[in-house]
Each structure stands twice: as C-alpha cells, then as structure tokens.
Design goal:
By secondary structure, the chain is mostly helical. The chain has helices at about 10-30, 35-50, 55-60, 65-75, 100-120, 125-145, and strands at about 50-55, 80-85, 95.
C-alpha cells in the first residue's frame, strides 16, 4: 500500500458500508409502506422528541434546511406529517406526525427490527451490547468539538 492510501477494510469504510446496506435494505422493505430511509429517520425523531421546528429537524438529520423543507413537503403531500405555525412565533413552522404516521409506525419499526436481526445474525452472545457500547463511545468521542472544528 502506498503512503497516504486508505485501506478498503478500514473502520471508516466498514462503518459506512454497514450503514449504507442497512439503509438500502430498509428502502426496499419499507417501499410497501411508502417510506424512504430519510423519511423514517425524520419520523423517528418526531416520535422520540415530539413535534419539532423545521430548523431543529434539519440539525438533527444533519441536512440543509432547504433539503429538509423539500423532504417535509413530500411527506406532507403523502400525509405523513403536517406543518403548524408556532404559537409563539408565526415565522416558525412546527412539524407534527399525523394519524397516518401513528398507525404505520409499528409496521415500520417491525421492518427495521427484522433488518437489524438479519444484520446481527451469527454474532456471539453479548456482541451486540458490546458493539453498541463501542459505537456510543465513538459517537461521544467524535461529538466533542475541537478548536479546529469551530
């Protein structure tokens, strides 16, 4: 390997590939529900945190506000979410899950759980908990802003 070459089997590549394959599998299986992985991520955030301003959703999903706005537009047209004005600031739009979302969330959760079970098949007992703890630590380590990132 030449100096500066990134090995294909590096941790970063493996994590990226695993995440990509999880998203791809979800896209295929959730198509019957009419959900994409991006839409699923948005809905999970709404269920975890409750109704949220669009700007906050963009931060949580790590996408540009204009991209989030387009995503919410498509989801509102499909009946997954609705925008309501903030009662304290009418310039702010709050995104709410709809009844359609609440009635479909368990089916989507079942699809996600099935995909995770497939992904983790064959791992030794306790490996899932260990891997989860390790990923949480990696996220924690990388979430701390350094001076060069400010």
């Amino acid at each position: 390997m030449s100096n500066g070459e990134i090995p294909h089997e590096s941790l970063g590549f493996l994590m990226h590939d695993a995440a990509r394959l999880l998203r791809k599998r979800f896209e295929v299986q959730a198509a019957e529900l009419g959900l994409t992985s991006a839409q699923w991520r948005l809905l999970v955030n709404l269920f975890k945190r409750g109704p949220l301003p669009q700007a906050r959703l963009a931060e949580l999903l790590e996408i540009e506000p204009i991209s989030l706005s387009r995503l919410v537009d498509r989801m509102a047209e499909a009946g997954w979410v609705e925008r309501r004005p903030d009662p304290n600031d009418r310039r702010i739009r709050i995104v709410h899950a709809t009844d359609k979302t609440r009635s479909t969330i368990s089916a989507a959760r079942h699809i996600a759980d099935s995909i995770y079970a497939d992904a983790l098949a064959g791992l030794p007992p306790g490996a899932t908990e260990t891997m989860t703890a390790m990923l949480r630590q990696i996220i924690c380590n990388l979430s701390q802003t350094t001076e060069t990132e400010k």
